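name: query_chain
kind: protein
chains: 1
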Amino acid sequence: MQFIGNLSAVKAMESYCKKENWGNLTFSGPKGVGKFTSAKALACKLVNCSETQLATHPDVYLCDGKEMKVEDITTLLNFSMLMPEKSFKKIVIIDNSNELSEIIQNKLLKVVEEGNTTTFFFVAHQKLLETIESRTFSIVFSKLTASEMEQYFNSIEEIPTLPICMLQGSIGRYNELKEDAVLADTVLCLKSTLENLKNKSELFQVFHVLKEKDKEEFFSSNKKNIDLIIAFLKEVFFNLYMKKKQLHVNAIINNLEALDSVYSLQESASIYKKLQQHYLSCKDARYSKNDFFILIAYMVL
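structure:
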């Protein structure tokens, strides 16, 4: 399997394969960067099977932490206590293991401690209980860079339907969003507006923030992806600032000249900073339509 990015994680897995005694592992990092794919690839290497054979391999147990219940621990314990049929050890891969309740994690701890013929792979994008993590070696994954994302799309010969800056270094996030026609149309509309902007007030219109009960009110329609919208705007204004400083520009929109004539160097730097602040805060569930209105007002006034 070809891996893109996360070279330190790949090296850690290569080193792990050389060990005679397979210890428990935690694959940690953001969503959609290849943790579960890597866990399965490593398991295939260790039990000597293909990915298609993995799900039916007698020495491999695959499960999803989102669906796991307390009663499943008994099944898992029975599996872990049996001797392996074909391999040196058995392997349990728990995807989304951070979704396991604290009760299940505590019950699972007993299985991890007693199943000496079984190795556990925990795939998580948030912390597990310290008692679990203390019994594993952590392989840490990070977001892919823009160039690594481009490398991925080149490798599958696909042109992304969304700007790479919106994907947050996550292939998984892109796969979730690439069929989202509403988001794609929203981005096209934003790009067209920014490429042809004649004055700042036009932004009020495209974001539908002037009417209290606007049926097309932007924030409500795009709330689940508002972080991506802000990420896109952040990149646009960063490029505008770079252009004004006569530095290298990544062409995220086709025409920066319209924005260049509307915003000054100081304004572009200030708006970029404000967008960065909102990008961090919008990940909080308390981020509201009023917060977004304040952001747009800052960009316009």
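note: The radius of gyration is 24 Å.
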